[in-house]
Design goal:
The protein has a five-stranded mixed beta sheet, with helices on both faces. It starts with a strand and ends in an 18-residue tail after the last helix. The chain contains five helices and five strands. Helix 1 runs antiparallel to helix 3. It is globular and about 50 Å long. The chain has 163 residues and is α+β, with helices and mostly antiparallel strands. It has a single domain, classed as 3-Layer(aba) Sandwich (Aminopeptidase), CATH 3.40.630. The structure holds coenzyme A. The site of coenzyme A (COA) has 21 residues, from helix 1, strand 4, helix 4 and helix 5. Coenzyme A binds next to helix 1, strand 4, helix 4 and helix 5.
Length: 163
């Protein structure tokens, strides 16, 4: 899409990254269902924890975070890491703000992360995602890029009796 530029993240991008991630994921009901099931205390709900983990990653590894910029707004981002010993790379986070979805931005971001991991000597790449409806686009994207379904997990939860 014209008007979108791709570059590495800088310190000033943290809020834009958070806005993309929460805008993309908060629109679904999956995360609030998680909070209800786990009875999270204020400040430690899914969104609060996501904000903190995104900010920590971006501040620690800006060279492992590519952003898509639309003027002075961020349209999307991808974060990745690579394990030098196992030579397995991982896509840690990916989101495109709903205002910019469906224009090929995630595909371009993923291709950048895959090329970066390849140039770092990684032999394979993994990405964890949900089986819920909110992650349907992500699953199609990964499969379209050549990723194969290799492992399923399930998260069980229960409330513990309070005193
Ligand atoms: C998944 C996500 C990043 C895709 O971003 P996007 O920029 O809209 O995706 P693209 O335009 O690059 O589309 C790439 C592919 O994704 C899939 N896709 C995109 N939107 C889709 C939709 N609404 N429904 C189904 N598949 C979709 C398609 O396979 C598409 O390829 P195609 O155009 O050849 O059919 C975006 O929907 C998002 O941020 N979702 C919420 C966050 C999330 O799930 N992140 C990944 C967590 S692991």
């Amino acid at each position: 899409m014209s008007g979108i530029t791709y570059r590495l993240a800088t310190a000033g991008d943290v809020q834009g990254i958070i806005d993309c991630a929460l805008g993309a994921l908060w629109s679904g009901d999956g995360t609030s269902a998680w909070d209800r099931a786990m009875g999270c205390v204020p400040g430690h709900d899914w969104a609060s924890q996501k904000r903190r983990s995104l900010a920590r990653f971006e501040e620690a590894y800006p060279e492992r975070c590519q952003v898509a910029a639309a003027g002075d707004r961020l349209a999307g981002f991808v974060m990745w890491s690579g394990n030098r010993a196992s030579r397995v790379g991982e896509v840690e986070n990916l989101a495109v703000h709903p205002d910019f979805q469906g224009q090929g931005i995630a595909r371009t971001l993923m291709e950048h992360a895959m090329a970066a991991l390849r140039s770092e000597g990684m032999r394979s790449i993994k990405v964890f995602t949900g089986l819920d409806v909110n992650h349907k686009a992500a699953r199609r994207l990964y499969e379209g890029l050549g990723f194969r379904d290799v492992w399923h997990t399930i998260t069980y939860g229960m409330a513990l009796d309070s005193d």
